[in-house]
Design goal:
This protein is of the alpha+beta class. The chain has 3 domains: 99 residues, no CATH class; 137 residues, 3-Layer(aba) Sandwich (Rossmann fold); 143 residues, Sandwich (Tumour Suppressor Smad4), CATH 2.60.200.30. It is built from 11 helices and 25 strands. Strands 14, 15, 16, 17, 18, 19, 20, 21, 22, 23 and 24 form an 11-stranded antiparallel sheet that branches. A 5-stranded parallel sheet has the order 9-8-10-11-12, with helices on both faces. A hairpin with a 2-residue loop joins strand 22 and strand 23. The longest helix has 16 residues. It is globular and about 75 Å long. 31% of the residues are buried. Bound molecules: nicotinamide-adenine-dinucleotide (NAD) and adenosine-5'-triphosphate. Nicotinamide-adenine-dinucleotide binds next to helix 8 and helix 10. The site of adenosine-5'-triphosphate has 16 residues, from strand 8 and helix 8. Its EC number is 2.7.1.23. Belongs to the NAD kinase family. Keywords: ATP-binding, Kinase, NAD, NADP, Nucleotide-binding, Transferase. One of its GO terms (molecular function) is NAD+ kinase activity. It is an enzyme of class 2 (transferase).
């Protein structure tokens, strides 16, 4: 195999089919649709027979020594479902050689194919600076950009109180209309901190329009745009193209002990940061049985467990000792909260798994699940929480690109690895 690798590295694959004496033409045939031995375009299911090049040249005895390479085919599956969509996009396995064809995650650019018409502005409540900015932004979007503007009912009341001219601003009467918003809205603008981005994401139980988050909070990991330059920022976003971060969400379902199967659940929650299962007001340790695709992972005995997205890795999970992960990395962080054990290190699980957290019948107390820090749900003995990657990410516009914005946020927001630079004068390794 080593010789074969080196031959391939030189771009000179010394491979021949037994039936065919003409190497070159046969290899070229293989890259076409079908070969006569039944070799498909994508993958092999006939036998390739390879001859080792060095043994050819080194020894006459070995001249006809033939090495068979076992054929195989790769297929992709998850929870029993077949889904080959990644196959040739991401990994090629031509002629039995597995090679990365494409990255599964890349910097993403959004280019409008028709002009955006409708914008939804979501604002942090009870903030004077947010209210002032909202008034200016609505006016500018309507008068200069001729866009339809939606706001929440509370904000519409505030705007109309400011001036009756704002009667053109649209809103909704009851919450059931929120479920149709994604079909009307081209762009969402948030004015607030990270909590307002979480709020915006939580309004969309399915697909989410691109979000442009303006920073009017204190931290702002997910809010790269500065309100002072809102006209320039929005001009360039409306013109496009823009870099976006596709932030993964987790789909969380509570399955009660009384449910007949795991599909009989209450309304699922979609979280952008994390779902937390903790001891709530109980003074006992949580006792949580954790499974990953039906394999037992561990029992959490401590204050609780955080299942976080990579976007949420800089939030609660970070405070509980989890790693910071670039938001474009797909995965589920499994971070314990104050585990009563010396050896419980946080894990990062792959995106395709389903995590199941169960409160066992011998648990001393129930547990509580909360979703992006909200909507507490009691988990009694026998209840479970299922958590998997949701099919609807949250696209947030980047100031520069997802990597630059992420690094800037950990430097500016957390002062990550800030240390005085060591002075130049002093001992040095001159003789090394
Ligand atoms: N010990 C902790 O660190 C702790 C405890 C509870 C909740 N939280 C976080 O608060 C979030 C809810 O946020 P909120 O604004 O509604 O509540 P909040 O007003 O209590 O703010 C919590 C803080 O977390 C920050 N934050 C939120 N998402 C973040 C992210 N992805 N990366 C970095 N920082 C982030 C916010 O900027 C804010 O400073 C939860 O999802 C949870 O992650 C953290
Ligand atoms: N449109 C909204 N309606 C109701 N609640 C909201 C809305 N926007 C934000 N919130 C809530 O307000 C709280 C504070 O929001 P946010 O985090 O954006 O501001 P902040 O606390 O000033 O920012 P930071 O946390 O960065 O200091 C959050 O809990 C969030 O859920």
């Amino acid at each position: 195999m080593a010789e074969q690798f080196s031959a391939e590295k030189n771009g000179d694959i010394d491979c021949e089919r037994v039936k065919n004496s003409d190497n070159q033409s046969m290899l070229q045939n293989e890259s076409n649709e079908y070969s006569e031995t039944g070799c498909m375009k994508h993958g092999i299911w006939s036998h390739e027979v390879l001859r080792d090049r060095e043994s050819d040249s080194n020894s006459n005895a070995d001249r006809n020594k033939i090495m068979r390479k076992a054929s195989f085919k790769l297929s992709w599956w998850c929870n029993g479902e077949n889904g080959d969509q990644h196959k040739h996009d991401i990994v090629s396995f031509e002629r039995g050689n597995i090679t990365t064809a494409e990255r599964s995650s890349k910097q993403i650019s959004l280019k409008w194919e028709s002009d955006p018409q409708t914008v939804l502005i979501l604002t942090k409540p009870n903030s004077v600076s947010v209210r002032i900015l909202c008034v200016q932004m609505v006016r500018w979007l309507r008068e200069r950009k001729k866009l339809n503007v939606y706001v929440e009912p509370r904000v519409k009341v505030e705007l109309v109180a400011e001036s009756s001219n704002f009667s053109y601003v649209q809103t909704w009467k009851d919450d059931s209309e929120i479920s149709h918003l994604h079909m009307k809205v081209d762009l969402v603008i948030t004015l607030g901190g990270d909590g307002t981005v979480l709020w915006a994401a939580s309004m969309f139980k399915g697909p989410v329009p691109p979000i442009v988050p303006f920073s009017l909070g204190s931290l702002g990991f997910m809010t790269p745009f500065h309100s002072e330059h809102f006209k320039d920022c929005l001009d360039s976003v409306l013109r496009g193209p823009i870099s976006i971060t596709l932030r993964h969400r987790l789909l969380c379902r509570v399955v009660r002990d009384a449910a007949k199967n795991e599909y009989e659940t209450e309304e699922p929650f979609l979280v952008l940061n994390e779902v937390t299962i903790d001891r709530g007001i109980s003074s006992y340790l949580t006792n949580l049985e954790c499974y990953c695709d039906n394999s037992f992972v561990t029992c959490v005995q401590g204050d609780g467990l955080i299942l976080s997205t990579t976007s949420g890795s800089t939030a609660y999970s970070l405070a509980a000792g989890g790693s910071m992960v670039h938001p474009q990395v797909p995965g589920i962080l499994f971070t314990p909260i104050c585990p009563h054990s010396l050896s419980f290190r946080p894990l990062i699980l792959p995106e395709h798994v389903t995590v199941r957290i169960m409160v066992p019948f011998n648990s001393r107390s129930p547990a509580w699940a909360s979703f992006d820090g909200k909507d507490r749900k009691l988990l009694a003995a026998g209840d479970a929480l299922l958590c998997s990657m949701a099919p609807w990410p949250v696209p947030t516009a980047c100031q520069v690109d997802s990597t630059n914005d992420f690094l800037r946020s950990i430097h500016d927001g957390l002062h990550w690895n800030l240390r005085k630079t060591q002075s130049f004068d002093g001992p040095r390794d001159r003789d090394l």
